[in-house]
Amino acid sequence: MQIIKDIEQGSQEWFQLRLGVATASNFDKIITAGGKQSTTLEKYALQLATDLMLTEPDPTYKNNLMARGNEVEPLARQAYQEETFSIVEEITMFKSDCGNFGYSPDGLVGDDGLIEIKCPLGTTHFQYIIDNKAPTDYWQQLQGGLWVSGRKWIDFVSYHNNFKTKAIFLKRVERDENYIAKLAELANKAIALRDELLTKLEGK
What does pTM read for this prediction? Predict the structure, then answer.
């Protein structure tokens, strides 16, 4: 497993690193939260194959909520450190030795931990607090980050800087080895399909 540092997440160079790589933020296109194959696996394999044909990434869609998340994320990271008395180290990306799988964490905690930060709308943040669990919407990303990084746990962090109280919500998630095994199986299937598509293209 490779640890890549000193490249800013979200930069053009970072996007270049991800071309053709199945990344944890996209693992929901491979596997459902319940451990079944996603209906979008083949479409994602096509996207990965296409990425490898590009000299630079296609333009990406970025809405106001995503832009806000990028702006508020440093505040969330600081709030997490104050809440947990932990030091968070920022890196660029974990990448598997085979080069096919990647994960860009929002931070490393000690030798065993990760954090994944979300800065959602107020109603969503409120619901996370009420539910008091890591949302299943991000289960693939959380377990995928643990798989690619090899780490033991990940703290899901929801942060809303305008909440009067409870601006930060966090929930620790441990490795689910059965789920990770299924994820690895389906992720490798997506890569195999990616390579089949590239071979077909070469024959045209």
Answer: 0.91
